[in-house]
Amino acid sequence: MKRNLLLTPGPTQIPPEICAALGRPIIHHRTPQFQSNLREAIKGLRYVLQTEKEVYLLASSGTGGMEAAVANLLSAGDRAITVDGGKFGARWAELCDAYGAEPEVINVEWGKAVEPGQIKSLLDADRDIKAVFVTLCETSTGVTSDIKTIADIVKTTEAVLVVDGISGVGVTDFQMDNWGVDVVVCGSHKGFMLPPGLSFISANEKAFGLIERSTSPRYYFDLRKYKAAFAKIDTPFTPATGIIVALNESLRRFRENGLENLFARYARLARGTRAAARALGLTLLADESCISNVLTAINLPEDVDGGAVVKMMRDAHGISIAGGQAHLKGKIIRIAHMGCVDEYDILTGIACLEKVLYELGYSFTWGAGLSAAQEAFNIDEVPSVV
Ligand SMILES: *Cc1c(COP(=O)(O)O)cnc(C)c1O
């Protein structure tokens, strides 16, 4: 069978024990068996999100969780702040538009992070802003935002801070309660190593103040329904039972390894990937100051077509990486190091990238990427992770 290595920022690879859990016979959702799975999932998610607040599981991809946040927090005419520094930040503004809210969009050059001071100026100028929407890891550019500093600003106001943690949570540090984040959204098919189909949303009391008052139309994603049902360890609609059962396998891995060790491990994978790109004479899209450990976005030379790189790696060698989105289409490639990926997966990806760059006429020293990655991986000792 041909290799099928996913170095993509969602979906990510699924480890064997989670695959096995996905294959278990179905259980009914109105049973004590499912209740005990749901209870365990909520507990595990609280550990990963570093929160004691409510966590709800929705049957949707990540964007469903984002829509739930907007529909429940905002009413038509409400003002909000969003950050457009990539495709996913832009999605917050599109969702606000869809619900008749009025987003004040901060435009950030792709590859840079939002200046927290810009959010402060807008909040100071308009006391009626209801919510600030930001992205933990902007997956289209490989940039991590300074959520802690942004939270310090937002928590002194009436506005709530909503974080898209879909690619970042579980891969890079995110402390919902310590930092004072009001709402966070995550998805199953990124750092959680599951198939797409589940989103997670956590909201605190401040957020529930807005949720109770919102006049936006909502039904399936009405968080008041989830709050009432989850209080009884139940769900308002048929949950994605199969993925929730498997989620507990994923959450077990998080607990066994410890968040700190996982973050250190992803940081090491990122360090190797960046070193490889630079050694091949390529530059990174994200600014050094805000570069993410979740994925690495690599600029390609003008005469190398990113679409061809992605296609050749996938079709000829069975290795999936991501290309660029919007105006970066064809100009960059993105290599994800999230979820079930280790050093040797990254080395395989880099070896294949070298081969494809060679075939596309780009000149470099064979093995330069591999050797730089090996060296960067081995700078210090990081605890081993199962
Ligand atoms: C993947 C991703 C999304 C979108 O999630 P879907 O599951 O495709 O709906 C949103 N935000 C970020 C940061 C992502 O990485």
Give a description of the structure.
There is one protein chain. This protein is of the alpha/beta class and 386 residues long. It folds into 2 domains: 5-10 and 258-377, Aspartate Aminotransferase, domain 1; 16-256, 3-Layer(aba) Sandwich (Aspartate Aminotransferase, domain 2), CATH 3.40.640.10. The protein contains 14 helices and 15 strands. Strands 2-10-9-8-5-3-4 form a 7-stranded mixed sheet, with helices on both faces. Strand 3 (79-84), helix 4 and strand 4 form a beta-alpha-beta unit. The chain is globular, with a radius of gyration of 21 Å. The mean pLDDT is 97. Bound molecules: pyridoxal-5'-phosphate. Residues 9-10, 61-63, 88, 135, 137, 139, 164, 166-167, 187, 196 line the site of pyridoxal-5'-phosphate.
